[in-house]
Every structure is written in C-alpha cells, then in structure tokens.
Queue: 4 jobs
Job 1
Amino acid sequence: MLNVDMQAALMALAGIGGLILLILLVYIVILHKKIRKLETNYTFFMQDETGASVESKLRDDVDKLHNLQGTLDMIHQTQKDIMAVQNHCFRKIGFVKYNAFDNIGNNLSFAFTVLDGKNDGFCLSSVYGRNESRIFAKPIVEGKCLYGMSEEERESLDNALNYSGDMQAVQKDLEE
C-alpha cells in the first residue's frame, strides 16, 4: 500500500512538474515573440531615412564634435592674438576744429588725437593764421600728455579717450 501511494505521489509530482514546464515553455514562446517585436520596432526607430543606423550616425557626430573642439581652441587662441595686436594699433580718435584767431573763419585750425588700446599715441594740432600755419605733435602716454596742452588739444584727447567708434568733428568757436 505504501508503495502504491508513493507511486501515485511521484506521478502527481511528475505531472505537476510537467505542467510547470509546459507553462514555462508557453511563457518563453510569448516572451520570444515580444522580444522579436521589440527588436523590429528598435530597428525601425534606430535607422534614419537612408537606412543607416542612428547609433553609427550619432558616433560620427560625436567624433565630429571632438574634432570641432580643436578648431574652436585654435579660434580662441587666434582671437587672443588679435586682441593683443589690437592693443598696439591706433583705434581711438579725437578731433576738434576751431578758429585760432578772431579774424579767420571756417575753423581751419584743428587738434587731432590718435590712441592705441593702452591709450598711448599722439596729438597733432595745426594752428592756421593768415600769414602762416604751424603744426605741433605731442606724445600721449597712458592717456596723459607729457607737455602743456591747449583747451582744444585737451578736448581732442578727451574725445579720443571716450571714443566709441564713430568719428564726429566738434566745431569750436572763439566766442564760447
């Protein structure tokens, strides 16, 4: 009797094990179909319009970005070099026209100041008279003249120090 019960129990266990294996096999087939569907969708979405892989396109784009970083670094260095050169180039201008004498019209005298990025340069002034004309040049260092300056020369220097890019002649009359 014990032997029959034992055989029945083993048969029941074998049946239950077989049923579990059958359920697992069905589950594996269902999962396999879902994975195939996901692979199909993944392949569809991971291709561009030409059929090339988006992943390979992304790799190419990242490589191009890394190459552009070198170019960008070179541009930044070139820009620094240009800025260093610009500090030594004349780029600020001051200009004042005026009448040096009461009996002469048309503002034929002038003061003209040119400065670089460090505010170094010169002031060139011309005093026009009926019988003669004189031209003076005065050095400017760090925005200051080493010699005495006339009111018009100082105004020209101030114009150059405040220069914003547009040159505007200032008419100066003796009547002021």
Job 2
Amino acid sequence: MPNRQEELTAMLRELRLPTMASTVAQIALKASKENLTHEGFLYELARLECEARTQRRIERYLAQSKLPREKTFRTFQWERLSAGLRLQIERLRSGAFVTHAHNVIAVGAPGVGKSHVAAALGHELIQQGHTVLWTSTAALVQRLLAAKRELRLPQEIAKLQQVACLILDDIGYVQQDREEMEVLFTLLAERYEQRSVLITTNLVFSAWDRIFKDPMTTLAAVDRVVHHSVILDMAGVESFRATQARDDHTPSETGVGAAAAPMP
C-alpha cells in the first residue's frame, strides 16, 4: 500500500494535479473515518484541486493586471455617491458588461473617485475569471508608439486584445500629437464591439477634441467608445481630497485644532 500511495502521488503530479497529490493521503484518511464512498472520496479531491487552481489563476491575473491593490470596494466610500450612481456601479459588479464587450466611462473632476471605482471593478472582474489590465493612458500610448517604431504595432494590439477589460486611467490628461492620437484611435477601433474598455476622464465628450485634435477623428472615437457603454457621471460628487482637507482644518467639538485659550 505505501508503494501504491507513492505511485498514485507521482501519477497525480505527472498529470499536473498538485493539490490532489499533496492531499490524497489526508483525504483517504478522512474517507476512512467518515465512511465516504469512492465517489465522495474522488469528489473531495477534485473539489480541493479546483479551488486551488482557481486561486492560483486569480493570483496570476492580479499580478498581470497591474491594478492598485488597495483600491477595492472594501476601501471605497460609498456614502459619497448618489443612490443612482451606487445602483449603476452595483450592476456593473456582475461583470455582464465584459461578457457583452460593452464599455464603461467614468467622467468627473479630479478627486471624485473615478480611478478607485475603475480599479475596484477590475478586482471584481478578476475574481470572476476575467483578465484585466490597468494602465495610465499616457503609458499605454508610449507603449503603442514604441511598438509602431519597431514595426510590431499589429502584434502589440493583438496582445492587448487578449485582455478582457482594458482600464485606461486619466485619458483627459493626455495631450497627444497626431502620431499618438492615431495609435490610441487604432486601439479603440480594434476593441470596438470585441473587447471592453473602462475609461476614466475629467473631460466631457465635447472636449475630447483636445485628445484627438481632428474633429472627424474625435467624433469617430467618441462614437465607438460611447456606443454600447455605461456612463458614470460623477460630476456632482465632491472631491475626496477637498473633503478631507476641509475636515482636517475644522476644529472638533472638544476644541482640538482650535486656538488655545489664553492663560488667566
């Protein structure tokens, strides 16, 4: 029996079932104590292997995503949003927009939580088994330009097409020249109705000509991004940094932070 158990462990490792290999003796003991059937014994082994495989995949996707680890829904201040925005975001958490290759655009002033919402949605998607890539728009444009100079732009875009949800942070801060605009437009056009894009921006759509320069290109880009999309209008949300700064400078009821009273 010991030789058979060692042989079984070796075969499981050869079949690339490491969790089953490492737990087979433990589960066999449990099966003996609890009078599990052969089917129950096999089910428990397979369940542990599947759970471990899922966890390894999540960890791999998370490492590849470049997502900010701290920006999840657990650390998000929901109370700062309107009921309508909260409902929109809750619906997005299902991940259905990625399944249908729809886009999400979070629009609002700096500091309102656009990037936090985008990153938190990215974390949710990874838990559901979707691939995600988080990047600033400026960094991605430079990556595409480098690929173009090396005559491998189609290959680079094809590589990005493998990502289920591409998160472009701060598209409004990028002031592209024509060459930069062209590679960004090419990427958005390739992903149109094929893969999802999640964009954060401080520019309303009528101001996107600052990014794409040419009016016709701007219109075409906005049309592709907005079609089949969910718009998170965060214009009415107060800046988190402004709120925090005000709270830091507001004297408390106990007088902490206020000027000290003069000595008698």
Job 3
Amino acid sequence: MPYEGFSLELAQPPPPDKPLAEMTPEEQGEKGAEVIIGAMQSCPGKAAISGVMGFGLGGVFGLFMASMSYDTPMHSPLQQPGKLIYDLPFKEQLKVAWKDMYTRAWSSAKNFGYIGLIYAGVECCIESTRGKSDHWNGLSAGCLTGGGLAYKSGPQAAALGCASFAAFSAAIDMYMNSENGRPPKNDFEQ
C-alpha cells in the first residue's frame, strides 16, 4: 500500500470551546495563538502592523537622511540667526544637530506610518470586498492611497498621486512575485 498510515476518515471537529480555566496549558496556548493570528489577519490588524512597521522604517530612514545633511555648512536659526553651525561651540553644534535629526526622523516616521496604515487598510478592504487576491488589489489600493493623500492639492495632483502610487505598487508586486515563476530545468539554468 503506497500510503501507509494514511486514513481517509474525516477529521474530528474540534471540541466545543471550554472556559479558559478548564483548558490545559497547551490548549490555552493554542487558543491564544488562534486569537493573535486572527487579529493579525483582520483588516485593522494588517493596517496597524503596516503602520507600526512603516513608522519604524520611516524613523530609521529619516534619521539616516538627516545624518547625511551635515556635509555642507548649516545655518542654525534656532540658536543664533545668521551664524553657521560650525561657528557655534561643540555642545551647541551637537544640540542643534540632534534636535534636527530628531525632528526629521519623527516627521519621516509619521509620514511612512500613515502611508503604510492607509495603504494596507485600503488593500485589505478591497481584497475582502472583491474576494480575490491578485495584482489589481495593490493597484487599486495604490491609486486610492496616492489620490487620497494628494486630493487637497487639486485634481491634477490627485491624479498624479493615484498614477504614481499605483505604478509604485505594481513595481513592488512584480518584484515580490518574480520568484513565483517556473522552477529551473536544471541546476545550471539562471
């Protein structure tokens, strides 16, 4: 028999939910994992996770970009207007630089987090509504997110935001799905 140990019997339905106090520690762990996974797979959960991850990534990106801006003399209007940062004492230079880096990192983190939250929420809602998971969800979510973020600047900006976010979303989807092609014929095929 080729499938030794294989049974065609239907799996038993899970036992009815017991109160938490009557569960074994293993059952409590499984129940807790189910609740966490269910929350992470919901649209609000996906949006929150994307927002938090975008916030962290944006903070790191903003901090990096702010640290790269000190290759030219910088004016310090916060301390003494009209004076270059290099003319200030070392402690003042550090104070101005850290404050500037914090401000840029915070601003970038908020923007990335907001965009991640909106995009993931919109994409999840579109996927739930359509009942399909394909590239159109990302394109639509990109268009709605980009257009929604730029709508205050007028219809042309909203259209440009829609097109650019949709194109960026399509490029990311193509890159992420590029590994889903056919397997190589042999070990030497690239």
Job 4
Amino acid sequence: MMPAATGLRSRPAVLLIAAALLVSLILGLSFIALHQFRDLRGAAVDPVAQPLTDEQARLQVLAPAREIAGAGKLTGVTANYLLMSCKNADEPPYQGAIYLNFNVPAVLDTPKYFSSIAAAMTANGWTEAMPPSRHPGGRTFTRSGVTVIYFRNTDAGDRGTMQIYGECRDTADHRSDTTGWVDVTAALPR
C-alpha cells in the first residue's frame, strides 16, 4: 500500500498553488491591459484642466488658418469649420477643426510649392512633425497645441487640402446641437 501524499505534493496543495498562480497571472495581465487601454485613449479623454469656450475653440483654429493662408500665399481658398468630439461621435470634450482647400500647381511642382508653405510656417514658429501616413508628399506641423496637416487632394487634382485641429479643451455639451460644417471662407484673407 502506498503512503498518502503529504505536504506540497498532495493534490489539494498542488491545486491551491495552481489557483494562486492563475489568479496572479490574470491580475497581472489585467493590469497591463488596462494600463495600455488608458495609454491608447490618451490625453483626449483626461479631464480638461483649462477648458475653452466654443468661441475660443473656433479661434484656436481660425487664427492659424488666416495666418497660413496669408503667409503661404494660398490661392482659391475655401474653408469649413466643425466642432468635433475628441472622444467619440458626440461626447465632450470637443476640438475645433478647419478643413481648408486651396489651389496647387501641377503634380511635379507640388513638392516645391509645399516646401514654400513649410518655410513660411517655420518662419512663424511652427514645428514640422512626422508626415501624414495616408498622404504621400504631405506635411504636418504643430504649434501651441494646434496641428496642421496639408496634402494634395487625390479627388481634385488641382487642389490641396489643409486640416487644422485644435486642442481637445471645449467641455461644453453639444450632444443635442445640430452639427455640420460651417463655411468660414469669408474670414480668411483673399
């Protein structure tokens, strides 16, 4: 007859150790997953320390649009503004966004033209960032929390598109507002 297993080799002890290790593994993985989930959401969903009013959010992107349209000597400019959610489709916080369209020269002359816009922006304190991944030949700039991305519009060969995004600091609740792009072309230099 075999002696009964005792100590750490007994079936109940092995099951208890396995359960403790499994619980530790699950808790550790949960901590890592939640930490990474928070990092993926980023600052856009953190509480806003210094909120902007609706008008401040609009001016945060409209002022750079005016500046760049003038300094970059953009022609045929049209622009639309939208207050967009940084979180999902409609919850606060919001950021101002302007989509500006402008004339561009022939395809082979566009890089030189985009470089002249970049030089004008750099001269006004903008910092060049990584180029936009979905728009070959495009450029990205930042300054004071505002991001500007411009590129050749693939749907209209003679036009460029500039997207200007402000900070996610407008905390007013706009969930019940009627939304849509608002034409702000008249507020830009001609």
